[in-house]
Structures are given as C-alpha cells and as structure tokens.
Amino acid sequence: MQRTNDLDSRMILVCCGTGCLANGSMEIYNALQRELANTDVQVKTYTKPTGCNGWCEKGPLVKIMPDDITYVQVTAVDVTEIIEKTLRTGEIISRLLYRDPKTKKRVKSHHEINFYKKQHKIALRNIGEIDPASIEDYVSRDGYKAITKVLQEMTPSQVMGEVVRSGLRGRGGGGFPTGLKWRACAAAASSPRYVICNGDEGDPGAFMDRSIMEGDPHTVIEGMIICAYAIGASAGYIYVRDEYSLAVKNLAIAIDNARSRGYLGQNILGSTLSFDIEIVRGGGAFVCGEETALIASIEGNVGETRDKYVFPTEKGLWGQPTIINNVETWANIPVIINKGAQEFASIGTEGSKGTKVFSLVGKVINTGLVEVPMGTTLREIIFDIGGGISGGRDFKAVQTGGPSGGCIPENMLDLEVDFNSLARAGSMMGSGGLIVMDDRTCMVEIARYYVNFLAGESCGKCAPCREGIRALLEILNDICKGKGKEEDLILLQEIGETMQTASLCALGRTAPNPVLSTMRYFKDEYIAHIKDARCPAGVCRDLTEFYISEEFCTGCGLCIKNCPVDAVSGEKKAVHVINQEKCIRCGECINHCKFNAVKVR
Amino acid sequence: MKIIIDRQEVDVNPGATILEAARKAGINIPTLCYHEAFGGQGMCRMCMVEVKTGNTTRIVASCIYPVYEEIEVVTSTPAIEKIRRNIVSLLYRSAPESELMQKLYKEYKCKENRLSINHNERCILCRLCVKACEEMGRSAISAIFRGTEKRVATPFDEASEVCIGCAACAKMCPTKAIEIYETNNERIIWNKTFTLIKCESCGQPFATREELNYIISRTGMEGLDGKHCESCRKKNMAVQISQLVE
Amino acid sequence: MSANARQVEAKELAEILNKYPGEKRYILAMMQDLQGKYNYLPRKGLEMIASRVNVPLSRVYSMATFYKAFSLVPKGRINFKVCDGTACHIKGSNVLIDQIYKHLGIKPGETTSDGEFSIETVNCLGACALAPVLVANDRVHPKVTSAGIVEIIKGYGGQINATDK
C-alpha cells in the first residue's frame, strides 16, 4: 500500500445519499467540518458531501483522496481518529476498512472491492465523486463539454444520428430506441416542442433514478439540453416523484447554477438555442410513471392514461410534439456525445447496447446500485457483485421489472441481462430493479403483493385493468388464506390474458405478469396452497406454523430474547415452545437461532 | 378515404374513429362507455377490433382509434369475443341487478365462477353520467380516488352547490345506478333536494328552478319563460305561429 | 369559527395560492403547498383553488383524492410512513404495520383520536438497502426490527400496549 506523500491537499468525500444520511452521514460531515476548522493538522482538506455511492449496505461511506482509501460504516466518533491518523500521517485505520468475507482480508479502496470492481459506470460515473451542488465539480469531470461540442460542431441531425448509432434504448422500462424517438419528434409538424424527464421512479425496490437526480443532477440537465437542440424544443420539465425531496432540492440548485453559467436560458452559449427547465413534483401516483399519465399530471389533471394510437412524439404535452425519457437515459447522452456512438455501442449485446444500472436489493449480501454492461449474467450480478444470498440461505428467485415484470428461477441464473432475453423469459428489464428472494419467500404471496400494490395504483379508468386486478386480488388473497379453489389457476390465467390484450395502457397490460410468471415457474407452490392449504416457504400466516424442534433446541434462550411479542417460553437448557396464538410469524426466532431449531410447517 | 370493415368498403373522413365509420355504415360494434353525444372514452374496451395496417395486425379500441390510413378492420373474432365475454363477466360483478348486465351476461354466455358478486352495487364506471354533467350540467360529479376504489361522487359526498338537479346523469346511466327520488313536488338526487316547477299549462312537474336558471344563463333564451314544459311550449309556439300566419 | 377567524384563514390560504398563476397546471403545486403547511388539504383551500384556476370543484376534488401525497383529514403530530416497497415487504414491513396497530390502535390511513400519531403505507422510498424502512415525519429509520419499532414508538411519546389487542 502506497502512503501518499502529497499532503498538500486532500479530498474527503462523505456519502450523503439518502441511505447514508439515514445512517448518520450528515453528522460525520458536520463533525469533519467542525474539527478540521480547529485542528493543527497541516493539510488543506476539502470535504464534499456526495450522492449515493450505491453500496448502502456498508454506509456511511467516507472516501479519502488522493490516498484512495474507502472507510465503511463510519460514525461521527471516528472523525477525530481519521483526522489524527489518516490526515496527519497518512496512516490507514484498519478497522474502518471493508473486510472481504471470503479472503478475510481488509481492502483499502472501493476500487478493489468486488462490488465495484465488476461495475462499468457510465450513468453513475460521477456519483460519489462530486458534490452535486457544485457545478464546478461537474464541469471538472467533462461536464457540459458535450453540449458545447453539440452547439459548436454538430447539426441537430448529426446529434440524433449519434444517438441512433449508439443503440441507446430507453432505460425506464419501455426500451424504445432513443434516437428514433427523437427523430420522430423532430419530424412532427407542430411547434412548440417539449422535453420531459421522467423522474417518477415508482417500481418498488428501484432507486437508481433517485441516486442520479440526487447525486449528479447536471448529467440529466445536460442530456435534456442536447435533446432540446436536436428536436427544437424551448421548454423542458423534470417530473420528480413527490417522495424524493432531496432529489428535488439538488435538481433545483443545479438548474439555478446551470442558468447562471448560461447553460440554460436564452441563447445558450451564444447559440440560437433558448431552453429552460421547470421542476414539477409528482403527487404520489405510481401510474404517473407512464408517459401519458405523466403528461396529464403536468397539465393539471388526474394521472389517467390514454391510448397511444397517436404517440406523444406527435401529440404530447398540451397536444404538442414531446420527448419523454427516463433519468438514466438522459444520464447517458453526454457520454455518447463526448466519447462517440461507436464506443458506447461497443459495450453490451447485439440488441441492448451500453450499460444498465440495477438496484440489487432483497436477500442479497451487498445491496445497492450496480451498473454493468448489458449482457452480464444474473449469476454474476447476484453472486459475484452481490456476494450471494444473505443469512446463508438458498437462492430462490429474482424478480425483475417491478410490478410489470416476473420472477426468474434458479435454473435460469445464467441468463444474460438484456431487453430481449428477459422478455423471452416471461419477465422484462423494467427500470432495473432486481429483487433477490430466498427460500423464505413465498412466490404466491409475492404475486399477491404486486397485485395488491396495483389495486391501489391503477388509475382505474379502464375495465379490464381495474376489474381484472380486483378479481386477481380476490383469488390470490383467498389462496394465501388457504381458501383457494381448483378452478383458480385457470381463472387467473384467463383473466390475466384478457388484461394483457384489452387494457388501455402498459400498467394494465403488464399487471398480470408477476402472477403469470410465478405460476409458470413455481406452480407447485400454488398447488400446495390450493390443494393442501400449505405454504412451503412458511410465509402465509394462516397456513404456517413455526415450531421448535426438540431435536435441535439447546434451550439457549436467544429466540425468547428476540421475540417481539413474547410468544416463546422455556427454561434454560430445556426445549423452548412457541405459543401459536401470540406468534406473528415475523421470523426473528429463525433469524437468530444458531442451531436451526425453529421449523416451519 | 376508404377503409374496409368486415370486408365492406366504408367511406371515412381522416381523423374520424373506426367506431364512427362503422356506425355510419350500419356495422354494429358493442360499447358500454360510448355515446354519440360525447364520442368514445376508451374505458370499457368492449369495442376492441382487429386492425391490419400493411403487415401488422393488432387489437385496438375502435371508439378512440383515429383513421388516417387505409386499414382493414375485423370487428369480431373468437379472440375478441372472448375479451368481450370476460369484460362482461367482470363488470357483471359490479352491477348484477341491472337489466343491462343481466342481458349481456346471457348474450355472451358468461359462465358462473367463484368470484364474489356485489348485489348492492350498480355502477360499471362507464362515466357517462360524468360526461353528461360536464356537457349539460355544471360538472357537479366526477370520478374520485383511483384503482379498485374508483367511484363517481360529488365533492365530499355531500350535496353539491352547483348541482342543478337536471338528472341528465340518471337518464344517461345504462344500469340505473344513480338514485333519484321524485314526487310531484320534489326531486332528490345526489343528496340534494330540489323543488320541481310545474308547467302552467298542463300542471306537470318538468324541471327544477336551478336547471331553468342554468339553461337561461347558458343559452340566453329570452323566449324561454320558465313556466311551461317542453311539449306545452311547442304547442304554444305552434299556436303563435299559426296566428302570425293568419 | 368566528367570522374574523374565517377571514384570516381565507387570507392565509390566498397568500399561499396566489404565489402561482391562476392556471390549471399549477393545481398540483398549490395542493402540495397547502399539504405542506396544514398537513392536510383544508376544504376552503380546495374551493379557492377551484375558483382561482377556474376549474369545477369536482375536478379539484378528483385530484385531491387521486394523488396519495394529499390527505383530506389532518395527519398526526407524528406521521409514520411505513415503506411497503418490495424489498421492505419481504423483510417484514407488515410486521411493523401490525406492531403500530397493536400499540397505537391505528391502521394505515388512520390517525389516533388525540391527533398524536397517524400511519400510512408508502410506495418504495428508494432506500431499499435499508429495508425495512420507517419514516417518522422527515426522519428516516433504517432496518427497523419488530423490537426496534417499539423503541421508536416510545421515543416519539407513544404508549406501548395502550390498546389491548
């Protein structure tokens, strides 16, 4: 390990993404500011609050440059030691380094950690390295170079050509070729035209857009300005989910800064392009992630969708030609312009170019954001990068594509992630949520969970979706309570198929997917619920009983201590017993028992 | 321009919907949320038809789909009939007591299944009432909430200040879902009580005062004296005209 | 409410709404500001929005009920938001909901009768690595266990086992 001798200036990057903030990173940042102001350590230090590094599992993260040290799970009380040791003499505090569970060795830099090593960051390239409130930081990393190049050297047609040649496809879930969409809009007859950023990230389990908007808002802004030039738009809107208050705040600061530097407003960089951006906050509606509902919402209506026999590229916001793209799609645009379409297209697969950001969550050891080239296999993402299943349990399935997607079982883990292959497997890429499930997940309950989610999120306008979801939910609720009927599997299939063909929008058309895909790969679980009123995973409360095995119980009392409802009783060293009436099936006893004595029937 | 519907050549103005073109040509496509006064809403999806453009075939809602090129339309296929049957089957659960849904249930040969049925409900959420109130009334009702909780109501489920009691909503409703209670003197609808004005000629109650005021304010019809029902007014007018002619 | 108080209320509401042009597209923003200030949407506020943007009250009411960011009844002094995103769900968010019901007697969408606590489930907050997540007003509580929720409730002044459920 090389000790840095350059004590002239150091940079301390404190992760201030929502995750680390929740774990106290602001206290760390403040402590650093305070103590550095009073210290006699002879070193010029800059502290920066950055966006989400993606490795929320190990937060709060503090990185020190140019030493390239990454400290994990830091607390405010560590700050004094960090200043005294690392800043004063360059000494590395071993206990704050990440310890690889396989090699048991401490790792100095996040660059050496599997979680990061295998990633290829394009959309996430700046996050964790810059202060999102600083436009200088963005500019120092090739920021606004692309728009300068575009305005000085390229025609709108050339810009769109680059995007087409890059092969970039929409990252929000639709996967439509971005360049072709822009061309269609530019060709539409009417004016004015609008550019919209869809920041209404609603898939439960997905937070890549949040991280980009919080941690690198300028990349979205720059992407939108480039598009405005290409299609001839004068106004842009960033529609941000209401719940993402930090994203709204950082976007507003960024827009302000961009304006004062002349990247937004009249005659940008002395060109004829005049373009500005307004933030519109969502009202708390998943359906507003669907482009026609989003448009309706901006216009001042309820977020109801409409048929797309005429596309928004022709008649969108206020009836005008409109481009709507997802946050991650926008984040790729400046890089495509700077590095060229060919380089972008050299990454990924035939049908899916570039990289994709996934939010790897659930029962996996390294939860967080992962950006990998398209074509990486699920196995690599979950096991190499994710570190495998947490709690030493077994992999059961990974859910992709959120409420519009499906579950992929173990025997398909070598599937390469790409738009087409996931669709063929009965799921879809969606926005990139990867929810890893272990053997303690009930696939029927997962289907029920998603349908229940959609029951409240569907706009309710069309009959197949609204009534179809109502029917699916009734059946799945019954099945999970042990009241399933023989005809249910056929009924679920038939209602699902009607929804897929007749629903007005993609929400309704894809609503049956979690049900149909779990039925396809986990049919035996459905049958166990229906025929035997049994939940093999031990999740569905009415069908499950936790009991303590006499054979394995040592009477250590760990379960008694951890049971939140005092349902376990027993003397020391005697077999413990669970009171079935009090038990809420939370699973804490299972999680804590070292002897595998808690069983499910 | 010309398109083909069920192997019949049909004339259609560019931008008109398939449904409009079909109706003009006397071809029937079932609907639940369509009314010629308002056009299509694309909500019930009963009107789905198969459209072939070039080499692509897809199923679209004919009440909304605008015709801009020469397409081939098929209004009924086994797949489409299955969709219609399933939609009827699902909507029947929400309006089992209504004549309309009972009739459609039989017509589409829906099969009994294990799903629960709500005998207290009659609304199929076609929202024709909302449209009627928008066009002919004062937008007193609207669809509230979303998803499976969606329903039509007045703000706060209370008597609406702007409701004129015209009952256009109730008259438009295909399943008689709107409760309207009427006597010789009163009409109670959407939790609001209205006094009915009686015609000076025939003595029959014919409108609410609020309704008349609203019509006058919208149309500025000075000739509308607000004292006669429509048939008596026509009779009077006929008498006046014949007097002029003499 | 006295006539004066009614006037003050109207004046205060007008101040909030007049920040925006009287156009339909600002309805959402007006509602967000009202919700932020009053913790719910006062009826008078909705009526004033309707007249300011010249849209029927029924449509404004449709929006108020459609979007989950708004509530028509005041929320509690401490508003618990339990994330029911998929990651939180499979890590036991329903247990937290049950525990809140057990100790405070309220289900999602409800407020305690003394106006102290309310609970709602929210869609994925995007903090999935910290599942299960509970937000109390603006404070994010990560990885809340069924034992941890009890401490959290106590910490905000709630009574434990106040209801015999």
User: Unreliable stretches of chain C, pLDDT < 50, 5 or more residues?
Assistant: none
SS-derived structural category of chain C: alpha+beta
* Helical residue percent band of chain C: 40-55%
Biggest sheet architecture of chain B? 5 strands, mixed
SSE run of chain C: HHHHEHHEEEEH
Number of helices of chain C: 7
In percent terms, what proportion of residues of chain C is strand?
5-15%
Structural class of chain B: alpha+beta
Number of helices of chain B: 7
Rg of chain B computed from alpha carbons, rounded to a whole number of angstroms: 22 Å
* Low-pLDDT residue intervals, each spanning 5 or more residues of chain B: none
Biggest sheet of chain C: strands, sense, closure? 5 strands, mixed
**N-end to C-end Cα span of chain B:** 50 Å
Mean pLDDT of chain C: 86
What strand line-up does the widest sheet of chain B have?
2-1-5-3-4
Portion in strands of chain B: 15-25%
* Interface with most residues: A-C, 61 and 51 residues
Strand ordering within the main sheet of chain C? 2-3-1-4-5
Mind sketching the topology for me?
The complex is a heterotrimer of chains A (601), B (246) and C (165).
Chain A: E1 9-15, H1 18-22, H2 25-38, E2 44-50, E3 62-65, E4 69-71, H3 79-89, E5 98-99, E6 106-107, H4 114-117, H5 135-140, H6 145-153, H7 156-166, H8 178-187, E7 194-199, H9 208-215, H10 217-231, E8 235-240, H11 245-260, E9 276-281, H12 291-299, E10 322-326, H13 327-339, H14 341-345, E11 355-362, E12 368-373, H15 378-385, E13 395-400, E14 406-409, H16 419-424, E15 433-438, H17 443-457, H18 463-480, H19 488-502, H20 506-510, H21 513-521, H22 523-532, E16 546-548, H23 558-562, E17 568-569, E18 577-578, H24 588-592, E19 598-600
Parallel strand pairs in A: 1-2, 7-8, 7-10, 8-9, 11-15
Antiparallel strand pairs in A: 1-3, 3-4, 5-6, 11-12, 13-14, 13-15, 16-19, 17-18
Helix pairs in contact in A: 6-10, 6-13, 7-8, 7-10, 9-10, 9-11, 10-13, 17-18, 17-21, 18-19, 19-21, 21-22
Chain B: E1 2-5, E2 8-11, H1 18-24, E3 48-53, E4 56-61, E5 72-74, H2 78-92, H3 99-107, H4 128-136, E6 142-144, E7 151-153, H5 168-172, E8 180-182, E9 186-189, E10 192-198, E11 205-208, H6 209-219, H7 230-245
Parallel strand pairs in B: 1-5
Antiparallel strand pairs in B: 1-2, 3-4, 3-5, 6-7, 8-9, 9-10, 10-11
Chain C: H1 3-17, H2 27-38, H3 43-53, H4 57-66, E1 78-83, H5 86-90, H6 93-104, E2 110-111, E3 117-122, E4 134-136, E5 139-141, H7 146-155
Parallel strand pairs in C: 1-3
Antiparallel strand pairs in C: 1-4, 2-3, 4-5
